[in-house]
Amino acid sequence: MYQVKPICGGDAKVDLPTCMYTLPNVHARPGNSCTHEHALQNGDILDPAVQALEARQDEIMRKLYELKAAVEGLAKTVTTPDADMDLTVSSSLSCQSSTAFQGAADLDKLLGKDLGALHDIVINANPEQPPLTLLVLHNLLCQRYRVLSAVHVHSSVSGVPPQLLSCLGPRHPDSYARRLFQLGFTLIWKDVPKVQMKFSIQNMCPIEGEANVARFLSKLLTPHPADPALATLVDSWVDTAFLQLAEGSAKERAAVLRALNSALGRGPWLAGREVSLADMACYCCVLHSGAASSAPANVQRWLKSCENLGYFGPAKVLLQ
Question: pTM for the complete prediction?
């Protein structure tokens, strides 16, 4: 606003009542300068004590905002039926800048914007059937985003092997500061018949099945193939991996290995020129079925190519 000159001097004498205690005249300044009046009109604060109080209030409000964000993020786990978790065993952070997939995914666009809270993904899995594909995808997510990872043990299971407790990596020293992370990845070892996943605890039903959860997580890494034929091929291999390699009979597994050998004879990967969810699912199911050592030549070469990429490592280590 425009400035107005004072209408009276700062040395004006005013008769004050004597029935109350007196206060110093805040308008009186040495030199009778107009700087203070102009500062008050412009909203500036000249008193150091008031400035210190304002700075302290700003710091308190900042800490309250961080606390609110942390509580809102934890509420997604606390309000789920899995609130009786017994043991927190690990938490990790990875913020590598390299990416394994082409194309960037916007978490707010994919998962919805949740102001002041971390995007939390909670997965229930049976320790007798570790979801190897999800561990590979977790490793890739850590290369793309700042992921706060944690492993918990539910009261319905006991005697979880140490390698399962540390499957998401070591605890990060900044794990308490949830505002530093983009995505929360919580794995709960629990007695469940199928892998279950919840993202929005309040608004969604759980996604069941390792194949369906893997499809969900892969969308956070790369968009679905624009080519309908390629997208159908990826889904077909994923279904084949989990329905026939992982759960099928010996005759079905042998047929799938022959199909894999034929497909890999035409190219280095199962769907297109890049690694896809089809390769991850089939790789993990081949390892889990124990057919890796007796696989045909093209499948053996493909298995080594997957292992050379690095992020397939957690799946193989878990089975050793």
Answer: 0.65
Q: What would you measure as the largest C-alpha separation in the chain, in angstroms?
A: 107
Q: pLDDT tens across 35-56, in order? A: 444 444 445 556 788 888 888 9
| H-type alpha helices, the chain | 35-41, 48-78, 107-111, 132-144, 162-165, 210-219, 228-240, 250-264, 277-289, 297-308, 313-319
Contact indicator for 138, 147 with CB cutoff of 8 Å: yes
pLDDT at 158: 86
> What's the distance, CA 14 to chain centroid?
66
Mean pLDDT lowest for which of 24-33, 76-85, 168-177, 265-274?
A: 76-85
Q: How far apart are the first and last CA of the chain?
A: 74
Specify whether the CB–CB gap between 197 and 206 falls below 8 A. Answer: yes
The whole-angstrom separation of Cα 286 and Cα 147 is 28
